[in-house]
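Quick note —
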Amino acid sequence: MNFAKVGAVFFILWGIIHVIGGGAILFAAAESPAQGFAIYGAHSDTYTELAGNVLSYLAFGFVWIAVLVTYIGVRYNWSNSQSGLALNTVLVGMTDIGLIVFLVLPGFLSWGEASPGLLLFTGGVVFGGIACNSAHGQSARTFE
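Predicted structure written out below.
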């Protein structure tokens, strides 16, 4: 089994589902701030245009993090890069910490709703870490 490629697939899938999720928020918020916030189960007709634009701004940043994670997964994690693993671990880890602190713990998302991304992150780190530390197969490389 090529652990580097398995880890890369986990990171790539994390990126893809988060591009889709961020895109869904952007499209919903473009219709109205209320539709953007409704994705999180918050229903009100009193969201201001500013609130909708802030949500869109955050979703836009979220999409670009996911695009970057996907690129790093394809370009670096796939070929067992220690630097790629470190970068994706930090990018995804910090993003998922924010998810837990700001959406799961306050109750806007359930652990079940958050678990696909958290499981993909865990798989990417575990399999990528095994690949980078393994005495078998390719030796890990840094950015080239």
